[in-house]
Write a structure and sequence with these properties.
This protein is 52% helix and 17% strand. Helix 1 packs across helix 2, helix 1 packs across helix 3 and helix 4 crosses helix 7. The protein is an alpha/beta fold and 229 residues long. Strands 1, 2, 3, 4, 5, 6 and 7 form a seven-stranded mixed β-sheet that branches. The N and C termini lie far apart (51 Å). Helix 8 links the parallel strand 2 and strand 3. It folds into two domains: 54 residues, no CATH class; 169 residues. It is elongated and about 65 Å long.
Length: 229
């Protein structure tokens, strides 16, 4: 790809990431940014930046489709998702990042398109849903849910459903171990779900892309009060 094509490609990624926000003069901004490098290095930096983003970035529409498949999955939300989702309590607990808020916006779009509901119109059941984009070390995921579980008085039969678009296996397993312990103490069922597996560091160095989860993996681990079902 030549310089102009690379500038356009990188700009398209930024526009997708900044969906809904008008970005005037973005190609010119990227062009100004690249000029901080020596003339002989600029094309190489642009190529590597474009390759890196293309390999690791998930377009908004792809993320939305993953989330839609999850929300409308009959094994999660029964054969008639409208009733289940209408009563679902969507959790808003992330304080240090906008990722969860962005996922809830996508969920809101999907609910309006599929069942004519908004996220803020849902709630009232004994089911709770935690949505986030990706999990790496899992610290925020663990802290969010363990703290919330410990401070919540649940009715009998409560269920927590968590969903991530992509997970790093080690961080995910570390976090879910702590969450399972907290849920066990409160006699709460937890269902962990995700759509893509992030390759370990040793594989990432070899440029192996994130791999899609199988159908069973997409539905994650079902944990019933500390006992595998």
């Amino acid at each position: 790809m030549e310089r102009e094509e690379l500038l356009t490609s990188i700009t398209d990624f930024i526009q997708d990431y900044k969906y809904g926000v008008v970005q005037q003069g973005m190609p010119a901004y990227v062009n100004r940014w690249i000029r901080q490098f020596a003339d002989a290095d600029q094309l190489t930096v642009l190529k590597e930046m474009n390759n890196l983003i293309a390999r690791l970035y998930l377009p908004r529409e792809e993320v939305k489709q993953f989330l839609k498949n999850f929300l409308l999955n009959s094994r999660i939300c029964s054969a008639e998702p409208r009733e289940k989702l209408r009563k679902m309590n969507f959790l808003r607990m992330e304080q240090k990042s906008r990722n969860q808020a962005e996922m809830l916006k996508l969920a809101d779009e999907i609910l309006q398109e599929e069942i004519s509901l908004r996220v803020d119109q849902c709630g009232g059941s004994n089911d709770f849903m935690y949505l986030d984009d990706c999990i790496f070390r899992g610290n925020r995921f663990r802290q969010d849910l363990v703290t919330w579980i410990n401070n919540t008085a649940f009715k009998p039969g409560a269920t927590i459903i968590t969903y991530h678009v992509a997970r790093h296996k080690k961080g995910y397993e570390d976090a879910t171990l702590h969450i399972k312990k907290a849920a066990y103490a409160k006699r709460v069922t937890v269902i962990f779900c995700y759509s893509k597996e992030i390759a370990p560091e040793e594989e990432t160095a070899g440029h192996k892309p994130a791999k899609p989860a199988t159908e069973a993996q997409q539905l994650g681990i079902f944990e019933d009060n500390g006992r595998f079902a």
